[in-house]
Design a protein that fits this description.
The protein has helices at residues 17-23, 43-51, 91-110, 172-178, 194-213, 215-223, 229-234, 244-251, 257-261, 266-279, 295-315, 333-343, and strands at 63-68, 72-77, 113-119, 133-141, 187-191, 225-227, 239-241, 284-290, 318-321, 349-357. The strands form three sheets. The chain has a four-stranded antiparallel beta sheet, with helices on one face. β6, α7 (229-234) and β7 (239-241) form a beta-alpha-beta unit. The chain is built from twelve helices and ten strands. With 377 residues, the protein is of the alpha+beta class. The structure holds flavin mononucleotide (FMN).
Length: 377
């Protein structure tokens, strides 16, 4: 994934419509983060409006929801939403579903409901989600349910895809608090130790280079790029490239999907440079390891990931996944085995790798409204 921008074109910011266009932000794309509006009476809709804020690969939001009876919801995969090049078995998609289910659980608990989850009620397809039911959730009022303190961080959580402050180390005490919670099915591990961080950094940079220079994996990202506020509002998903600099370059005709796809272009080169700067800025790293790589392992990894991302938010830390080295396409075999030697020498599957540090405040990422994701019973 790249974010492209270049210093060129800034002189174009002038008066009149240009300046207006340049400073415009997406208007509707981040609406689903405003949770202050009336709480839906139906607990399922309340849980789902929080759950759609879960982190998910390339912000594909590959989910759909079917309300069933009075107290259940089927969480379905949308077969139109896949990443066949970088996620050929829908492993990363499934991790995203895990985060969604975990936030739904927290939102239900906040109103005193327990969720019973049946994963893959119609069976598991290891090769792909194929538009099937990922999980069925049933909601029951239960006086014994405890609220989860991490729930407060749901609207504040971000994937902070910016360079971090390298002058500010993440102390080993803070890192230990961040990763303290460990489920037997999804272990959360981390390091701020300089030699290990340096090895992770080289791995992340090498893997990013491969993904960015392999035409079909790069094009998969480019196709998902939304350039400028109007595109982001029209399709509030994918890789959103917004902000004044992008608007200037877009108006100047210097950035669009065609230029971003072309390795000879300025936009592509600038994008790769920004990618190196961002992904290379690693004060500390964390990763999640599961015993195997079943669908249940992947869901567990997603639940663990969103929990650690929410805990980071409460601790004032920024996080950003760097998944390239964990992907299954053939060109990535070298970094994939290096990642496993480095991060899971005792065995297991590394499901997530993320950089951790102190970063700037960033706006929330786009989301489709919940209504757009409901399918008839
Ligand atoms: C399984 C998984 C893998 C991800 N890998 C990357 C990645 O390699 N690079 C990246 O910038 N973001 C990655 N992300 C973060 C998503 O891009 C991010 O969650 C999405 O854009 C929505 O933004 P938000 O988390 O700020 O709401 C990943 C997220 C998940 C769940």
């Amino acid at each position: 994934m790249i974010i492209a921008v270049s210093g060129a074109g800034l002189a174009l910011v002038g008066a009149g419509t240009g300046a207006y266009q340049v400073t415009r932000q997406p208007r509707t794309a981040t609406g689903p983060w405003s949770l202050a509006s009336a709480t839906p009476e139906d607990i399922r809709l309340d849980a789902l409006r929080h759950a759609i804020l879960a982190p998910n690969p390339h912000n594909l939001q590959p989910w759909r929801f079917r309300l069933e009876g009075d107290d259940s919801v089927a969480i379905l995969h949308d077969p139109q939403r896949r990443l066949p090049e970088t996620d050929p078995f829908d492993r990363q998609l499934t991790i995203g579903f895990g985060g969604l289910i975990e936030i739904a659980r927290m939102a239900a608990a906040a109103r005193g409901y327990r969720i019973e989850t049946v994963e893959f009620p119609d069976g598991v397809a290891e090769n792909g989600l194929n538009g099937g039911v990922v999980a069925r959730l049933s909601f029951t009022l239960d006086a014994g349910v405890a609220a989860d303190p991490l729930f407060n961080a749901v609207p504040l959580r971000r994937s902070t895809k910016e360079p971090y402050d390298l002058a500010r180390a993440v102390s080993s005490e803070l890192l230990a608090r961040l990763i303290e919670e460990d489920a037997p099915t999804a272990r959360v591990l981390g390091t701020a130790e300089p030699a290990r961080v340096a090895a992770v950094r080289q791995l992340v940079l090498d893997a990013g280079e491969i993904e960015g220079r392999t035409a079909r994996t790069h094009l998969e990202s480019v196709r998902l790029m939304r350039v400028g506020h109007a595109e982001i509002d029209a399709s509030p998903d994918g890789i959103d490239l917004g902000g004044p600099m992008i608007e200037v370059l877009r108006l100047a005709g210097q950035i669009d999907r065609t230029s971003l796809a072309d390795p000879a272009s300025q936009a592509y080169k600038a994008g790769m440079e920004i990618q190196r700067e961002t992904y290379g800025s690693i004060p500390a790293a964390l990763w999640i390891v599961t015993p195997g790589d079943t669908r249940l392992d992947q869901l567990a990894a997603g639940r663990a990931y969103v929990r650690v991302n929410l805990r980071a938010t409460l601790l004032g830390l920024a996080m950003h996944p760097a998944s390239q080295s964990l992907q299954e396409f053939p060109e990535m075999r070298g970094p994939f085995s290096r990642a496993h030697q480095l991060l899971a020498p005792g065995g297991g599957r590394v499901q997530m790798l993320a950089r951790v540090g102190y970063g700037p405040q960033v706006p929330p990422s786009p989301r489709w409204p919940l209504q757009a994701k409901l399918v008839p019973a």
